[in-house]
Amino acid sequence: MNHTLQAVLAATGSFFVITLIFAIVLIICKSSSKRRRNNRSISPTRARNLPLRKPTTSSGLSSISIGESASFDPTLKHVSMKELVDVTRNFSTDLIIGDGSFGLVYKAQLNSGPIVAVKKLSPDAFQGLREFRAEMETLGKIRHENIVKILGYCATGSDRVLIYEFIEKGSLDQWLYDTSSEDNYDDVELRLPLSWQTRMKIVKGVAKGLEYMHNLDTAIIHRDIKASNVLLDADFEAHIADFGLARQIECAHSHVSTQVAGTMGYMPPEYFHGAMKATVMGDVYSFGVLMLEIITGRRPSFPFLGEDGREVRLIEWINKMVEQNRYMEMVDASISKDDLKESIVVEIFKIGVKCGNEKWKDRPTMKEVVQELDNILT
């Protein structure tokens, strides 16, 4: 056999041996990878399509990972998914009382007795978990008479549920406007127009709640102050709700490292001018818009026809009316003017306009707002 043929045979043999070795290694790697995947926990996407299973903890409480529980208030009640399914009749649409950010809210009575509001967050793994953490890390640590109280939670599989005190009168949005056709539950209360005194009580309540949040050692910004996120109790005291977009910051006047968020009409103009970070002054602007909305009974997110026939938005319309000193004309027509002092109306409008200033540096702090409201309304 000549040397050339020997070289060809040797090369061919080496090629087949090397190919066989690579094939064996590849098979071993695939087998090992498959075993690892089978040993991992079920993915959130797959878990959402599985039936709810009873938690494995011996106490019967909801299971929760160590990473998630690290920042939770240990006094908050753990409620099992089994109990929540029972008391909400498997989250029946008949019990829906609201629609929070990323989740529906149900009215239910826990086995321990209290009537509560149960918010089942979106099954989307990212949105639901993000809101869950936001509410637990902010609302779960604070107590104030004008901030809704969180009472408990459930976390099992991909499901995240938050449990709050039940606020009897529902949202401010429902009282400012006729939303009866939008409500999908039976016990819709006959809602009379809110008086001036009641509206001022609500304004002061929201202001005090925000003042408290902004002046904590680690300040909290809400980022979504609006009428539908203000709940009213039996005495029409205001309770700020829905902290799914809330964030903690180290200094009340510093920027927070997070993307801007909120609701059109309430969002401060700097968010549209390139500012990609939120501050407490964003909350002040949203409060100013809400305050003006409460006085005028006009939605800030919906344009309406001005006197010249052009569409105009709330803040633009109010600024034009203020230039002409037409304050009383802006007051909601459903409010009785009999005992209403124009001087007080003017001062209240001025606070709202200052809070809604286009330049964030010219807005007052919520502490200053509360002081001014106390001076005017006492």
Which structural class best describes the helix and strand composition? alpha+beta
Contiguous runs where pLDDT drops below 50 for at least 5 residues: 31-71, 184-188, 252-257
**What is the number of domains?**
2
How many DSSP E strands? 12
From the 3D coordinates, which CATH architecture of the largest domain would you assign? Orthogonal Bundle
Shape: globular
The SSE order reads HHHEHEEEHEEHHEEEEHEEHHHH
Largest sheet, in brief, is: 6 strands, mixed
- What is the fold named in CATH at topology level of the largest domain? Transferase(Phosphotransferase), domain 1
| CATH class identity of the largest domain | Mainly Alpha
| Major sheet: arrangement of strands | 1-5-6-4-3-2
Fraction in beta strands: 5-15%
Residues in helix, %: 25-40%
- Arithmetic mean of pLDDT: 79
Oligomer: single chain
Number of helices: 12
Family: Belongs to the protein kinase superfamily.
Enzyme class: transferase
Catalytic activity: L-seryl-[protein] + ATP = O-phospho-L-seryl-[protein] + ADP + H(+); L-threonyl-[protein] + ATP = O-phospho-L-threonyl-[protein] + ADP + H(+)
Binding site for ATP: 120
